[in-house]
Amino acid sequence: DVKVTQSSRYLVKRTGEKVFLECVQDMDHENMFWYRQDPGLGLRLIYFSYDVKMKEKGDIPEGYSVSREKKERFSLILESASTNQTSMYLCASSPMGQGRDTEAFFGQGTRLTVV
Amino acid sequence: AQKVTQAQTEISVVEKEDVTLDCVYETRDTTYYLFWYKQPPSGELVFLIRRNSFDEQNEISGRYSWNFQKSTSSFNFTITASQVVDSAVYFCALSEAMDSSYKLIFGSGTRLLVRP
Predict the structure, then answer these.
(1) Structural contact between residues B103 and A45, judged by C-beta atoms closer than 8 angstroms
(2) Pick the residue with more confidence: A97 or A78?
(3) How far apart are CA B56 and CA B35, in angstroms?
(4) Which parts of chain B register pLDDT below 50?
(5) Cβ–Cβ pairs < 8 A, chains A and B
(6) CB of B7 within 8 Å of any CB in chain A?
(7) How far apart are CA B65 and CA B69, in angstroms?
(8) Distance (Å, rounded) from C-alpha A105 to C-alpha B5?
(9) CA distance B46 to B48
(10) Which of A29, A103, A106, A112 is the mutation pick for testing B, counting most B CBs within 10 A?
(11) Given this model, what pLDDT does residue B95 score?
C-alpha cells in the first residue's frame, strides 16, 4: 500500500518560531510537493521538488523554504511563523517519467495553528 | 492562466439521491489532464479518476460517473444513489506543465453532505 506520511497531524506554534513540517514517502517517487489548503481557496502549491536537492517555487512560496536531502523526505520550513500561515498543509508525491497524467498521492495533512 | 472553477461550495442531499458536482476549467494547452480527488474528514486526498483531453468518453465506476465535455470545458462528477460515506470535500484538478515537472491546479472544492 503506497504511503505518504506527514510527521504531525496537529501543530501549535508561536509567532516568530521556526517550524519544520516533515513528509516521507515510501514509493521511490521523484516528485514531491507541498500544498496549503484554505477554505474557499482549494489547494495552492508552495514548493515542489523533482529530485534530491532540487526545488522549485510554486504559487505562494513567500515565507517558506524547503529541503530535500534524501529522495524519500521533503521538509517544509516556516522561517518565522506568522498567524497568516495558520492553515492545513498537505504533502504529495508522484513518479517522474510518466508525464502529466500521473496522479499524486497525498499525506493526511498537518493542521498548523500559529498563535 | 490555467484555472479550475467549482462553483458549488456546499451541497446537501438526502441518502439515495443522485448528486452532480460541477467542474469548469480553463487552459490554453491542447493536451491536458483532469482529475477528481475526494477528501474525507480524515484529511487525506484520495484519487478518484484521471482523464486526458483526447478521451471524451464518459466513465462509470460503480455509483460514480464522470461527464467530460471539451466543448463546454467541463468535467462533471455524478454520484448515483448517494450514501452517508460519500460525505466529503471533492476537488477537481487540472495538470499544468512546468519547466521540469508539472503541478496540479485545484478548484476550491465542493463539500458534499449526505444526510441519512
Answers:
(1) yes
(2) A78
(3) 14
(4) none
(5) 64
(6) no
(7) 13
(8) 22
(9) 6
(10) A103
(11) 85
